[in-house]
Amino acid sequence: MKCTRRTFIFLPAPAALAFVALGPASLARAQATPAAPSPEATPTTWDEVLQAGLDRGLPSVALRVEQGDQVLFEDAAGFASTENQTPATKTDQYRIASATKTFTSVLSLQQVDEGVLTLEDTVSHWLDDPVVAKIPYVDEITVRQLLNHTSGVYDWFDDNSPFWQDAYFGEGADWTKVWTSQELLAYLDGDKQAPYFAPGKGVHYSNAGYYLLGMILEQATGKSYAEMLHAGITKPLGLTDTIYGATEPIPADVADAYHVIQGAPVNVSTINLSAYGSAAAIISTTQDLSRFIDALLGGDLMKPATLDEMLTFGPSDHAGYDAGLGIVQWTTPGGKLTGHSGDGPGCSARMYRLDEADLTIVMLANLGGDEEPVDATYFDAIQMAVASAAPGS
Fold first, then answer.
1. What does pTM read for this prediction?
2. Does domain 5-389 have CATH number 1.10.10.250?
3. pLDDT class for 42, splitting at 50, 70, 90?
4. Measured between alpha carbons, how far is residue 128 from residues 134, 151, 363 in Å?
């Protein structure tokens, strides 16, 4: 069996978001768009939104919607563990996959503010390990290029990477294995795998590039990623339920992770997050993610000029959105959605703000491998949020 990035792991943002709109007429146009699937009856209450997610096959779904300082909705439905029939709650922690990248970008830019890093520092400036030296162009690739996916660094989660068989589906593969940086970076060896392109000559989403950022951060500061995460983000913002699953103990009551493999959901909770690292290993809640994206876009986590750098958007390698530094933006008929998504082993995350309506909409689910039900449910949530936030609603 061959399992690939397309069927098993990261997609940076949902295609359905491209059709989100504001206002009744725009919403009607959005509903008519085939690329934004919805259940037979469009949900008209928040409970119906959650139930629609369950009807589409999500084991559980947690949703938090805010307008300004007001929480419009916060709840969860389904089972955090289907085997144990453990009901999901609004405070449950979920794996957030690539939404981790926004955290890693913030930590990197905070070090820019501190004068520890510059965006033009090269990989080789900070990492002189022999296994790093075998990665093509490490003396040219910059921190900025790692952040905006223009580095060309090959990704061990690429469809054709041997990592899939080694880690998950080959003979003797051990899902609980703790992967070392030496083992992972060996997949980037230029003698074995060419880069996607020379630095700055294209755009290609690379989880490995964000893994390298975590290594650079640790080398530059002398601190672990988890220490930086808590000192720079979680403690200042009071995010009490956000942890770094690559190195910190994962609580027993974190929502189980289910992944669609050969058409059926499989419990993949035993997969060790060490291979995902600073690209995709954070665990969090809808409340913590809402606070995080609000604080970030509100200017609370870095200097204004640095935030402007982060929010300078350019082309991505996926139709429908532009990429900044660890953050993406969808231009929709109703405004700009800004944030990040994550689709990983047994998990999905959607973390966005719709500034024009002052809405923050965060959704977490414990299903991976099939983004369609996740995107459709999130699309429903946005429609409900817009309707609830409208004057006279």
1. 0.92
2. no
3. confident
4. 10, 18, 40
